[in-house]
Amino acid sequence: MKTLNSKLPFYVLMAALMGASAQPVIAQSDADLYGDDVVTAGAVDDPLESINRVTFSVNDFIYLNVFEPVADAYTFITPDPVEEGATNFFRNLKYPVRLAANLLQGRFDGAWVETGRFAINTTFGVAGVFTPADSVDGFEPIPAEDIGQVLGAWGVSDGPYLVLPLLGPSNLRDLGGLVGDRAVDPLSQPFAVNESWNWEWRLALSATDVITSSPTIIERYKQLKGGSIDPYSSMKNGYTQFRNAAIKE
User: Fold this and answer.
1) What are the pLDDT digits (tens) for 218-228?
2) Could you report the per-residue pLDDT of 38-57, keeping only the tens digit for each?
3) CB 134: neighbour CB atoms within 10 A?
4) Could you say which of 34, 130, 159, 226 has the lowest number of CB atoms within 10 Å?
5) pLDDT of 27 higher than 50
């Protein structure tokens, strides 16, 4: 399973869903969804399950009744090349998060690739709208890293499973990683100390980031939910399996 990172609304949800199949899900059990290597419900520490399930239900309502219409409208009015360019642009902006995560894990080859991709895509790809680095030998895309993965690589345990309002599935370790990601996220901390980027600009950029990401996220969320007898347990198990695999890779 591979990962895309992101932070802000949908950040953790995106991480959970990037490992879901891009094809329509017709499975009726967790084993069908994830194969033989399934994280069972009892294997996930979930002492707050009653609260988590309520939050999951609230999130589900918001995703399908607020964000899905926004995603549908965005997809309808935006040409595919523009959608792809916007996605590339925001992914390019998250370079500091990926760089820090690679360096903190001692993955210097990964840091070099991320730096080279950022330089090439920013200069020759019009601020990252295009990705010419994809065709440059040695600078092809690699799985993105985040601070939650760093903590896992350092031996920090998952901690209790959490469902965060709007953000979706997580755990105590990844919640700490989310804070770390925001500390080096160019949409937050660097602009916050730059007077030329006031909060209105940061809010606009953050909102645009969410909108450009929402079509893929909503589609995969609905696939996973629609193919599960118990969507809450499926999301919990799938998220845990995904994050464990991302840490081990």
Assistant:
1) 887 887 676 77
2) 555 558 999 999 999 999 99
3) 14
4) 226
5) no
Q: Tokens representing 51?
A: 């609260």
Residue 21 and residue 223 in contact, taking contact as beta carbons nearer than 8 Å:
yes
Angle at 165 between CA 159 and CA 170, to 5 degrees: 25
What tokens appear for 30 in the block? Answer: 């967790």
Give the pLDDT of residue 188.
61
Read off the tokens for 231: 């969507």
Other CB atoms within a 10 A radius of the CB of residue 161 amount to: 22
- The residue count of the chain comes to 249
What's the 3-state SS for 149-197? HHHHHCCCCCCCEEEECCCEEEEHHHHHHHHHHHHHCCCCHHHHCCCCC
C-alpha–C-alpha distance, residues 33 and 19, integer Å: 11
| Residue 8 near residue 166 (C-beta atoms within 8 A) | no
Contacts of 234 (CB under 8 A, 6+ apart): 30, 33, 224, 225, 227, 228
Distance set, CA 66 to CA 12, 70, 74, 188 (Å): 18, 7, 13, 24
pTM summary value: 0.74
pLDDT beyond 70 at 13: no
What is the pLDDT averaged over residues 133-151?
94
pLDDT of residue 182: 83
Contact 201, 191 (CB under 8 A): yes
Quote the CA–CA distance of 233 and 180 in Å, as a whole number. 27
What single string gives the DSSP state of each residue in 31-94?
A: HHHH-SS---GGGS--TTHHHHHHHHHHHHHHIIIIIHHHHHHHHHHS-HHHHHHHHHHHHHHT
